Amino acid sequence: MTTLLILIVVVLLAVALWQLTKIFDLTQVGGNVNDTQVANDNDNKVNGYLMFGFLGFIYLTTIYCLLNYSHFPLIGDSASEHGPEIDNLMMISMVLIFFVQTITQALLHYFAFKYRGKKGQKALYFADNNRLEFIWSVIPAIVLAGLILYGLYAWTNIMFVDEEDADDAIVIELYAQQFKWEARYSGQDNVLGKANVRYIEGVNNLGVDLSDPNAQDDFASSELHIPKGKRIIFKMRSQDVLHSAYMPHFRAQMNCVPGMVTQFSFVPSLTTAEMRDKPAMIEKVANINAIRASKSQKLVAEGKTPLDPYTFDYLLLCNKICGASHYNMQMKIVVDTPEDYKIWLKENSAKTIVQAVKTAAAEAKATEEKESATTSVKDTTSSNSKDTTVVAQAEQKH
Ligand SMILES: [Cu+2]
Questions:
Q1: Which of 16-20, 164-168, 347-351 has the highest mean pLDDT?
Q2: 217 C-alpha to center of ligand 1: Å?
Q3: In angstroms, what is the span from residue 25 Cα to ligand 1's centroid?
Q4: In a 3-state reduction of DSSP, which class is residue 15?
Q5: In the predicted model, is pLDDT for residue 206 greater than 50?
Q6: In this predicted structure, what is the pLDDT of residue 84?
């Protein structure tokens, strides 16, 4: 809000200044001032040097941003086996863009200065220059073709997973809905049971087909646990609108589309604990906690509860603006060692979805019976009070 106010004030100040200069110009009318609208040599010279000034501004801003903000992008320390390949592709693209833009901007501004308007100087007209056009067409074509080929190679490498070959891969479903994620594990058989939005009822909020033999051992979790060093095949579904499963630390993203199953697969290469121990991560966390500590001081002074210190966790985020609470659509990912994963699996795999549905049905039945018992007790009391209409209604209920 404050930023908006500041922006409005700046815009209003600019407008006021512009109006003031116009008034100033009007007061000069009739004086000995050059008010012709045609630029003279001096105007062109000023504009030529301003071009150089702008070039300097671009370069200085670039250097400033590189020095101050280059630690923000996630480059290096990716937590999946294919991560370095994506980082490499990203790095090559960025270096190329940086190189080309640095040179072209310099040329653009230099020539704007060199060929600024001068009295008596005429522009040379020529229709085309084959050699020049050849150079500026062929060089980008070769560079782009190389980049695209490398990108395609990386893409197929990452996206093509032979499920028959990868039989020790773990199949997990990521289910998206406004505004939360849920993971469904395929259980002992490693095959997810069929699911459809039409089967959603009560506690079966993932719409699992309870009659499917493959669904019998499926279990759901609100936290995604995966083991290090094993291939995970994610099957994505969405209940309502387009979502996107984004796991930045694993360099993974895939759209979740209502009515179809999409897929992404990767091998985690760093456990949560290992990632927390990385020097870059330690520095980042310390930085966040320093900010939190200073905020907490203010909160305490206002009599509010201070913020909890931050510890790093991998996250699954939604990367499609899917509604009002999109920003908060996230799920914690824990990369365990294979041993810890086994323990977690043991603790959680017993709570199957089929079992949960059965328990809920039994509970519902029990409460129903309890309720009908209390109603019949009430019935007797009301019949004692000779309220015949209530008795009749209660009988109808039975
Ligand atoms: Cu979403």
A1: 16-20
A2: 28
A3: 55
A4: helix
A5: yes
A6: 92
3-class state of residue 121 by DSSP: coil
* Cα 336 to Cα 227: distance, rounded to the nearest angstrom: 5
Distance CA 183, CA 186 (A): 10
Of 367 and 31, the one with more pLDDT: 367
Alpha carbon of 46 to ligand 1 centroid (Å):
52
- Tell which residue, 112, 106, 110, 125, has the closest CA to residue 44: 112
Across the chain, what does the average pLDDT equal?
A: 86
DSSP 165-233: T-TTPEEEEEEEETTEEEEEE-TTTT-PPPB-GGG-BTTBTT-B-TT-GGGTT-EEESSEEEETTS-EE
Average pLDDT over residues 15-30: 83
pLDDT tens profile 240-256: 999 999 999 999 999 99
Beta-carbon contacts of residue 48 (< 8 Å; ≥ 6 apart): 112, 113, 116
Contact 228, 338 (CB under 8 A): yes
Task: State the distance from the centre of ligand 1 to the C-alpha of 324, rounded, in angstroms.
Answer: 10
**Residue 195 CA to ligand 1 centre (angstroms):** 20
Supply φ then ψ for residue 263, to 5 degrees.
-140, 145
Tell me the mean pLDDT in the region 210-233.
Answer: 88
Read off the tokens for 122. Answer: 């005429």
Q: Which tokens is 343 given?
A: 């323990």
Distance from Cα 174 to the centre of ligand 1, integer Å = 12
Question: What CA–CA distance (Å, rounded) separates 188 from 157?
Answer: 29
User: 115 and 127 in contact (C-beta within 8 Å)?
Assistant: no
What tokens does 354 get? Answer: 């089929």
In the reported structure, the alpha carbon of residue 105 is separated from the centroid of ligand 1 by a whole-number distance in angstroms of: 39
Q: Which helix (H) or strand (E) holds 87?
A: helix 83-114
Does 88 score more than 70 pLDDT? yes
**pTM score of the predicted model:** 0.75
